[in-house]
Amino acid sequence: MGPAAGSPALAPGVEALGTESAFSVLARARELERTGRDIVHLEIGEPDFPTPAHVSEAAFAAVRAGETHYCPSAGLPELREAAAVELSATRGIDVPAGRVLVGNGAKPLLFFTILATCGSGDEVVYPDPGFPIYESAIRWAGATPVPLPLHEAADFSFDPGELRERLSPRTSLVILNSPQNPTGGVAGAADLEAAAALIADTGAWILSDEVYSRMVYDAPHASIASVPGLLDRTVLLDGFSKTYAMTGWRCGYACVPEALVEPLNRFIVNSTSCVPPFVQHAGIAALRGPQDEVAAMLAEFRLRRDQVVAGLNALPGVSCRTPQGAFYAFPNVAGVPLGADELAARLLDEAGVAVLAGSAFGRAGTDHLRLSYAASREQLAEAVDRMGAFLAGL
Ligand SMILES: Cc1ncc(COP(=O)(O)O)c(C=O)c1O
Is domain 67-288 given the CATH code 3.40.640.10 in the classification? Predict the structure, then answer.
């Protein structure tokens, strides 16, 4: 039965839009805090460090200088230039500034990329488990999601043979993400080269989500965009949120294929118009200024990673691989006598530890939890203690 005459209705496609459970769990945790409960927050994926002071100062100076109006939708030329220099140096390629677009975070750029390259009848290969917005946007675009499993036994890497099986003449886009949310896995250069050879034989675009590129603990960061010739079909996505503890500033950037510069810019014009220019000045300062705080954050994340992984592995029924990048641990909880969804819910309600159920990241995430270790070592120790007491009481 349709809506009653005169009552407003939602567009049918709205049903297809998913969400990010990190935001709903955060809301529930805040509700509990308002009732006086003490919650350890390991649900939200953002560095707990302040934005470096020189970055904030650059924005304040820009506001004082009157940089508070509309500006070019593709981004300030100086930021596009700085981002091109950064991407060229870190990926070993030649990125022209004219192919860099600046967005209100990496998220709109990935959403627009999916909307600009995928439609009804198309297939999109994407990591499972993976950042939930991929599947949500693929479905919104009317395309068919084709999950590519990541394998825990291989530290959450993908198998190039399984990628080959998933590519078809209808594949319009392949999404890769390394370092990875939610597993902390990283893709090795050899797997990326194998993937590049396979995708080069198809008509598919590539979206390489590298927003955690500076957060690698062992091997240097590898990018599919570094493989000769691949930049012409790859949206190489990076941003400020994670690297510079700037999640609330909403600024990201991408080097995009020549043929996508104008269409993606039109999405920006049609939606957000531009990133506030004073925010872009903060971005310029971040890229061009001292990088010592980035290095200090990474050193601290490494200590926390080692602490939380050791703590999790000491819990009954829990096993956790050592993540090689980002700031997430993705423990397997199949040995706990509760499903992971119920476990996550009860850890929040009964033990005061906010974590995410792995199923929110795709089918392959079942039996896992995601913990963000962007929290102090004291909070991490407290969380593991509380989890231990809860599991002992089952
Ligand atoms: C894999 C991945 N891509 C993109 C984003 C979005 O980042 P931004 O804050 O730049 O929009 C996130 C944020 O959690 C993420 O985990």
Answer: yes
Please give the number of the atom of ligand 1 that sits closest to the Cα of 110.
4
Q: Alpha-carbon distance 144 to 19, whole Å?
A: 18
Per-residue tokens: 309: 């992984």
Q: What is the value of pTM for the model shown?
A: 0.97
Instruction: Determine the distance separating the centroid of ligand 1 and the alpha carbon of 391, expressed in angstroms.
Output: 32
List the domain boundaries for the chain.
Answer: 13-44+292-392, 67-288
* pLDDT tens, position by position, 332-382: 999 999 999 999 999 999 999 999 999 999 999 999 999 999 999 999 999
Whether residue 182 is preceded by a cis peptide bond, meaning omega within 30 degrees of 0, is yes
CA distance 358 to 183: 9
Domain at 13-44+292-392: CATH code: 3.90.1150.10
> What's the gap in Å between 187 CA and the centre of ligand 1?
17
> CB under 6 Å to ligand 1: residues?
45, 105-107, 131, 177, 181, 209, 211, 239, 241, 247, 252
Span from the CA of 389 to the centroid of ligand 1 (angstroms): 33
HSE, side-chain direction, 13 A CA sphere, residue 270: 11
> In CATH terms, are 13-44+292-392 and 67-288 the same topology?
no
- Tell me the β-bridge partners of 143: none
Cα of 243 vs centre of ligand 1, distance in Å, is 11
* Residues 1-27: tens digit of each pLDDT: 555 678 999 988 888 898 888 889 999
Q: How far is the CA of 22 from the centre of ligand 1 (A)?
A: 12
Which atom of ligand 1 is the closest one to the Cα of 252?
Answer: 10
